[in-house]
Design goal:
Elements (H helix, E strand, L loop, with lengths): L12 H17 L5 H8 L3 H13 L3 E2 L9 E2 L6
């Protein structure tokens, strides 16, 4: 299956902060954070974390894979 990656759009300061925290979690723990972990890391509610992650997905910074997991994944090239 081919994953469609939309053209990247600029990030708000909060989205940039969330993406940085997401990447750091992946680099330290070697897996994507859960929605609850994202909420705790950023100090926001789960619904707010969900919306923030959805926006990052729509902008092409995160991608959900079809491996059955529910966690979004940062694109490997973006971890460098």
């Amino acid at each position: 299956m081919i994953n469609y990656r939309p053209v990247r759009k600029s990030l708000t300061p909060r989205q940039s902060e969330a993406l940085t925290a997401f990447k750091q979690h992946v680099l330290v723990h070697e897996y994507s954070p859960s929605l609850g972990e994202v909420a705790v890391i950023l100090g926001i509610s789960k619904p707010s974390a969900h919306e923030l992650l959805r926006k990052l997905e729509r902008k092409g910074y995160l991608i959900r894979t079809s491996n059955g997991g529910h966690r979004p994944h940062v694109l490997a090239a973006d971890l460098c």
